[in-house]
Amino acid sequence: MEKTLILIKPDGMRRRLAGLSIDRLDNAGFELIGAKVVSVTEKLAREHYALLKDQPFFEELIKYIRGDFHGVSNRRVLALVYRGEDAIKAVRGVVGATNPEQAAPDTIRGTFGRITTRGQFENVVHASGNAEDAEREIKLWFEPGELVE
Ligand code: UDP
Ligand code: MG
């Protein structure tokens, strides 16, 4: 059994896509074991995306995940932990490719994602990329007692 972190990003929250995303993840057979709404601090955003700090899109990405492009009242992310067999890779399959234009049409990103006129991928959800990231990210977003295990 693996655990993986999903975030419904500020674009997903603003566009009321949290329920649809959860529905798809539930129906793919994964088990929801943790959930909370988080107002993302600068510190949390930078720690979460620390591995991307040298990418040209990093500063825009920090603004995006903090909700800077989606209105003051939408400074919200829904953090979820799902558990299941091969969950990390399998959830990535439900979520789809990073670039919404390349994501398969039946994935969350392929259905709902967009590329902004600034060139940023607003792809609705985050999902941990591998086992190491999943462990680090779950620790960053959740206290151990907040997960049902
Ligand atoms: N991103 C972007 N432009 C790029 C690559 C990434 O705007 O060329 C954003 C996008 O929102 C993506 C996030 O940065 O989800 C993190 O990038 P990563 O490569 O980790 O993709 P992911 O793991 O989210 O699929
Ligand atoms: Mg990633």
Could you characterize what this model shows?
By secondary structure, the chain is α+β, with helices and mostly antiparallel strands. It has a single domain (2-141), classed as Nucleoside diphosphate kinase-like domain (Alpha-Beta Plaits, 2-Layer Sandwich). It contains seven helices and six strands. The chain has helices at residues 10-14, 18-27, 42-48, 58-65, 87-95, 108-112, 131-141, and strands at residues 2-8, 31-38, 77-84, 114-115, 121-122, 125-127. Strand 4 (114-115) and strand 5 form a beta hairpin. The chain is globular and about 40 Å long. The mean pLDDT is 97. Bound molecules: uridine-5'-diphosphate and magnesium ion.
